[in-house]
Every structure is written in structure tokens, then in C-alpha cells.
Amino acid sequence: MQAFVNFFYLAAAVLFILGIKGMTKPKTAVRGNQLSALGMGLAVLAALLDFHVVSYGTIIIGILAGGAAGVYMARKVQMTSVPEMVALLNGLGGGASLLVAAANYLESQQLSGMGQFDPTVEWSVAVILSILVGAVTLTGSLVAVGKLMGKVDDPKDIRNYKLGVKASFALLFVGTLTLVMGDTLNSGVLLTLMILLCLVLGVCLVMPIGGADMPVVVSLLNSYSGIAGAAAGFVLGNNGLIITGSLVGASGLILTSIMCKAMNRSLVNVLFGGSMAAAAGISKSENDAFYEGKVKFASADEVAMMLETAKRVVFVPGYGLAVAQAQHATRELASLLESAGAKVKYAIHPVAGRMPGHMNVLLAEAEVPYDQLVEMDTINPEFPQTDVAIVLGANDVVNPVAAKDKNSPIYGMPILEVYNARTVIVVKRGLSPGFAGIPNELFIRENTLMVPGDAKKVLQDVIKALREG
């Protein structure tokens, strides 16, 4: 039976790998997700067949409760809230590893007292790693959720948080050595204190990080949840958890590296550099003074007139599109332009929105053709031949200062070079700064027109004007 269980785990691992491979391209992403779900189903089945299972009653209750919660979230959570949901699921994964490893530790204490279990150093390290990384992931993810929802503000002074991180690491190092090298049978109090310390550490690590860096943080916390899961697999001797956790941990680290590169920032700078907005120190009055008398505004009717003669149009989606739920209106306008003979594309920045691939998910929901979603490096050379670039809620990822102002907090960050288009239309609720906390030079350029308002409403007005014209 154990060989049969391991075969199921191996099959699940193969499906996970194929699923991840499928998610590398929009055309195969749905199939990749389905393969991954099938793999998880096999892994759950294998776990249920494991000879260690002594009672199915509680497990069945857990499956029903978890399944019901999953169905509810899938149906009710809006696409704009997917980043928060992903961050929450990362935290729950870390919390699950924490609870599983802690329960196994308590059971091992009982077995050791009866002479039926002899804890090794390797086993102790795996227990500690699963518990501690899981605890950090849990509270860190909850803080990330709060920041993404706008419920948790960036602290003005991060020195206390940095001090808390240093003190926590020092105490955890001492505690870990004590647990591994000492008597693990009588260390429950110490382990409990370390868990509490790691819960605090998770808060101290994420609180100073600014909202602009949340995509990187979510990706990193995803990796943490995988590492905690893999460690829990070593604790339980479960090959499925080891393989799955390793895949999640490795892919999360790779994605984190890609995200940092897209922002031209090191991971150390993201984690310990504090909020970019706080570093910029731009007040509201200074931001308003930057734009005063320099921004040229346009109406939906005027935008419609420009689009009537445009042959090449590029949409640049940002978080404002997600907030306004404007993906369907965007698709409708694009279809209208295509029917008039225009060539339409969508410029996708790696960190646009609140999570990796956020814009791709939103546009896929509106059934935008996959071949029209163009990555930054490919679309940038095409902007000089673009008649109209329509920026929908994007801010920092289209700010020209990233390419020329060495004093800017986003200097060196690769951006979408929309300013090279013949005409740039910016649809934005107002002139408030983006996550980096700095004004956007694009908004005052000669070839830029701003249409203030909700992206969905503005696009619907443009569509109406085009049809009436």
C-alpha cells in the first residue's frame, strides 16, 4: 500500500510540473490550472490512503469545510481582490504547516516518553523550520492583505520594526540551537515562545515595506509557504508534501527574482529599504504644485474623435482598470476600433497591478485575444509608430523619470515607454501619486491628454461617442 501511495504522489508531482509549465503561456494557462488541480486531487487521495490515518471523520469534515470555502471564494471574490486572496492563501498555507508540525511535535513528545520515538537532529531542524517559517508566513501575509486592501498604512518611522527584526533573528538563532542541540523532549515552552516571536517577526518584516513592493512580497511569501510545506513533509515523512513544497518554494523564489528585476531593485532593498513613498517625501501640496497649469484635459467626445482616425492603438492597463472593473469596456472599445480597421494591442508591464500577471488575468476574463497581450520589451519599440496610447489607471510603470532622474526612487526601473506614442490619453480618477509617492511627468507632456474619471465610465462614454459619430 505504501508503494501505491508513493506512486500517487509521484503522479501528482508530474501533474504539478506540467501544470506550472502550462501556466507559462496564456493559451495553455487554463489547462495548466486543471492539471495542477488534478494533481492535488491525487495527492489528497494518496494522503487518505496513507497507513498513518487512524480516523476519517475529522478529515471529511475538513474537506467539506475547506471545499465549501473554496467554492465560495471562487464565486464571490472579485478579480480586483485576487491579489488579497492569493496573499491570504499564502498565509493559510504557512499556518497549516505551522499547525501540522506543532501537532507532530506534541505527538513525538508522548511517543518519546514511552520510548517509541527517538528524535534526530534532522527531524528537529525540519520541525523548527516548518513551524518558524510557517508562523512568519502567516502573520506576514495577513499584513500584506491589509496593505493591499488599504486597511494598513505604511509606517512613517520604520526604525522600531527594523530593530524588532534584528532582535527576533538573534533570539531565534539562540533558541534554535538550544532546541536542536538540547533536550527536545522538554522544550515545549521554548518552542511556544519561538512561535510567538516568529508571529511578531512576520509583522515586523512586512509592515515597513511599501505598497509599491507588495507584488514582490506576495511572491516571496508564496515561496515561504512552499518552504514551510516542504519542511512539514520531512517532519511527516510525506513525499507528496516534500515535492509540492519544493516546487512552490523554488518557483516563488524565481518569480520574486523576476519581479525585483522588473522593478530594478534588489530583494534586500525591497525587504529592508522601507516604503518608496515615504522615502520620496512628496507632500500633497508639492504634488499639486507640480501639475498646476500644466495638465491638458480632454473629454470623452474629443478622445472619440482622435480614435476615429487612429490606425494603431495600444491600451496600457493598470490598477485603475482593475478598481473600475473596466476590462469588459476596454475589450468592447477595442473591438469597435478593430471593426473600423485599427490595429489594437495591450501593453503589459510585469508589475502592473497588485500581483504578477494581474492585468493578464483581468483581460483574459474579458476574452481579450492572447496574441494581443504584449510584454514590455516587445511593445516598447512599437510606441513611436502608435497613433494613440490609452493609459488606464497605470502610474509608476509609465513614469518617464524612471529613465532619466537619478534622484527618483524608481530610477532605473524598466517602464512602458508610452511617451513615445503620437498621442497619449491618460484615464485616471485624479492626479494623486502612485505607490512610489512621486508625480508623473507623463501627465504634463505635450503629447498627453488627461480624461479624469472612473475608467469604466470614461470608456463607456467614448464608445457611445464613437457609435453616435
Question: Distance between the terminal alpha carbons, to the nearest Å?
Answer: 72 Å
Structural class of the secondary structure composition? alpha/beta
Low-pLDDT stretches are none
- Give me the number of helical elements: 19
| Rg from Cα | 25 Å
Number of strands: 6
Strand order of the largest sheet: 3-2-1-4-5-6
The amount of helix comes to 55-70%
Identify the overall geometry: globular
Instruction: Describe the sheet with the most strands.
Output: 6 strands, parallel
What is the mean predicted local confidence, pLDDT? 85
As for the number of domains, it is 2
Share of β-strand residues: 5-15%
Word description of this protein:
This protein is an alpha/beta fold and 469 residues long. The protein has two domains: 198 residues, no CATH class; 185 residues, TPP-binding domain (Rossmann fold), CATH 3.40.50. It contains 19 helices and six strands. It starts with a helix and ends with a helix. The model has no long low-confidence stretch (mean pLDDT 85).
Outline the fold blueprint.
Blueprint: H1 2-22, H2 26-49, H3 57-76, H4 82-113, H5 121-148, H6 159-181, H7 188-206, H8 214-236, H9 239-263, H10 267-272, H11 276-280, H12 284-291, H13 300-309, E1 312-317, H14 319-324, H15 327-339, E2 343-348, H16 358-365, E3 373-375, H17 376-379, E4 388-392, H18 401-404, E5 423-428, E6 448-452, H19 455-468
Helix pairs in contact: 1-2, 1-9, 4-5, 4-8, 5-6, 5-7, 5-8, 6-7, 8-9, 13-19, 15-19
